[in-house]
Design goal:
The structure holds 2 protein chains of 2 kinds. Chain A contains 3 helices and no strands. Chain A is mostly helical. The two termini of chain B are about 15 Å apart. In chain B, strand 7, helix 8 and strand 8 form a beta-alpha-beta unit. By secondary structure, chain B is of the alpha/beta class. Chain B has a domain of about 290 residues: Alpha-Beta Complex (Amidase signature (AS) enzymes), CATH 3.90.1300.10. Chain B contains 15 helices and 11 strands. The chains are: A mainly alpha, B alpha/beta. The interface between A and B is large, with 50 and 66 residues.
């Protein structure tokens, strides 16, 4: 685990770290990856035909429109609302 | 009334025979919360006003003679289960002010019984942790010793039951988050079979592993709650279309002839001697009751923690991508869209959540996917195979719930690897989608509770409750002194 990899992961994860905290997290992630590396020792191959967690699509609900939640309620957790959905102002 | 010793059965009887009203019972608990929660820190939100209103309504139903199993019964709910109009934080700054506009399926079912919600319990942030010390709002303490952790991630739910400030609670279990805190706090916790309970309204951590379940004072109480919350829900495609059965139907039946398997790897050097002794003594007790003990092995156990963390973190990285500061939750600042999202997530998530997102994205990223994520899925298949082989010659499996008892606050939560390895006894159950129950089976020299886990075949919660109950009836259970 090096700074380049941490920077790449931060981009994928949409997270920021200061240079100081990046050093700390690099140490922690190195130790975690070392633990994860143990899976490589086990000689077994994934067989996607044996995955027994598949969903029976016969049981999935029908794609039919139904009354949903009141708009007012759904907007209750958005930023200053009224009857609007306010997104932050962006200047690129 | 000595609240700690009450069971759902005893409360039901008191309510039905009018020894106490639902309002009086509710006040007993809310008063107790006021007195004890400042020490235990089990609740993030206490809903006492709403609880009293619901208790009044419940009493009307009891008076009409129409009470169901949970009518008028006060319960606590983990703060990652959505409750309409009541703040649901996941113990994260990200959702500090989030008020869900709907109820989780389990809450709808509890409301249909006219239960009484006492409050929302603390947890590790987004259910990621085993100590409840990653909570942004209430770092819960163990009622048996306030200087120790309650376990996690459902540490608040286990602690409030142990402290007698709720007779039972709902938790969620992704890698042991119901069973391990139940073990640390000396109470009983049931992780149902994956698909038994709808996850609709449970804030997602790792969708292929998450399952809601009860924490209570005994196995029968867990069965009573599971009877209510289980069942198919069209809004969760992974909930199973299984008939709703009485999970307490086998309670009291003889366990003579039952085969109980003990996988040797769970009793390795990494497990404390006192824990091993207590669980093996429980096995002996089962043998005296007429059960047969079966030696067995789970060779892949030493890889299970890594396989679990790769799968769970990969799913978490995907699930938590919804927290972008736009739709709801904490909103950061920035001149561009990317800056704003990064600032929201950097300020909203705690250290452990960030580590899991980084790990998940690492496992899923180009060049690592085959070596880590697919390998973890292969191990998942291997673990399922090994469980199936054990169940060819056993009815239940007995293991320790955790390798240690509850440790001192600050002792190991800062070491992620140490924390992850402590999940060794519980994660395989989630990987294999099996049901398991943790039951107190002893106390160490410091008086801290030790838990044992009984693992069952898929959909066989009834046998687990029967087996757990048989032991509980012989066990001299202690209560916390808080």
């Amino acid at each position: 685990m090096d700074i380049k990899t941490i920077d790449h992961l931060c981009n994928l994860s949409k997270l920021n770290y200061t240079d100081e905290s990046k050093e700390k997290v690099m140490g922690e992630m190195s130790a975690i990856i070392e633990l994860m590396d143990t899976v490589k020792e086990f000689d077994v191959v994934y067989d996607d035909t044996k995955d027994n967690n598949s969903i029976s699509y016969d049981e999935v609900r029908k794609d039919v429109a139904k009354p949903s939640f009141p708009t007012e309620k759904l907007l209750s957790n958005t930023q200053p609302s009224g009857n609007c959905y306010v997104v932050p102002k962006m200047v690129d | 009334m000595e609240l700690k010793k009450q069971t759902l059965g005893s409360l039901r009887e008191m309510l039905d025979t009018k020894q106490i009203s639902a309002v009086e019972l509710c006040k007993e608990y809310t008063d107790s919360i006021k007195a004890k929660n400042p020490d235990v820190l089990g609740y993030i939100t206490v809903t006492d006003d709403e609880a009293l209103k619901n208790a009044e309504k419940a009493q009307e139903i009891i008076d009409k003679g129409e009470a169901k199993a949970l009518t008028g019964i006060p319960l606590a709910v983990k703060d990652n289960i959505c409750t309409d109009g009541i703040r649901t934080t996941c113990a994260s700054k990200m959702l500090e002010n989030f008020v869900p506009p709907y109820d989780a399926n389990v809450i709808e079912k509890l409301k249909a019984e006219n239960y009484v919600l006492l409050g929302k319990t603390s947890m590790d942030e987004f259910a990621m942790g085993g100590s409840t010390q990653t909570s942004a709002f209430a770092k819960t303490r163990n009622p048996f010793d306030l200087t120790r952790v309650p376990g996690g991630s459902s540490g608040g739910s286990a602690a409030v039951v142990s402290a007698g400030i709720a007779p039972a609670a709902l938790g969620s279990d992704t890698g042991g988050s119901i069973r391990q805190p139940a073990s640390f706090c000396g109470v009983t916790g049931l992780k149902p079979t994956y698909g038994r309970v709808s996850r609709y309204g449970l804030v997602a951590f790792a969708s292929s592993l998450d399952q809601i379940g009860p924490i209570a004072n005994n196995a029968v109480d867990c069965g009573t709650i599971l009877n209510v919350i289980c069942g198919k829900d069209s809004r969760d495609a992974t909930s199973a279309n299984k008939p709703v059965e009485d999970f307490n139907a086998k309670v009291g039946k003889d366990i003579k002839g039952m085969k109980i398997a003990l996988p040797k790897e769970f009793f390795a050097d990494s497990t404390d001697d006192e824990v091993k002794s207590a669980v093996l003594a429980a096995a002996k007790k089962y043998e005296e009751m007429g059960a047969t003990l079966v030696d067995c092995s789970m060779k892949s156990l030493k890889y299970a923690v890594s396989a679990y963390y790769l799968v769970a973190s990969a799913e978490a990285a995907s699930n938590l991508s919804r927290f972008d500061g736009i739709k709801y939750g904490l909103r950061g600042e920035g001149r561009t869209f990317d800056e704003m999202i990064r600032d929201s997530r950097t300020r909203g998530f705690g250290d452990e959540v960030k580590r899991r997102i980084l790990l998940g994205n690492y496992a899923l990223s180009s060049g690592y996917y085959d070596a880590y994520y697919l390998k973890a899925l292969a191990l998942k298949q291997q673990i399922i195979k090994e469980y199936n082989e054990i169940f060819e010659n056993a009815d239940v499996i007995l293991t320790p719930t955790a390798p240690t008892v509850a440790y001192k606050i600050g002792e190991q939560e800062t070491d992620p690897v140490k924390m992850y390895l402590a999940d060794i006894c519980t994660v395989t159950v989630n990987i294999a989608s099996l049901p398991a129950i943790s039951v107190p089976c002893g106390y160490n020299a410091d008086g801290m509770p030790i838990g044992m886990s009984l693992v069952g075949r898929k959909w066989d919660e009834a046998t687990l409750i029967q087996t757990a109950d048989a032991f509980e009836k012989t066990f001299d259970r202690r209560y916390s002194e808080v």
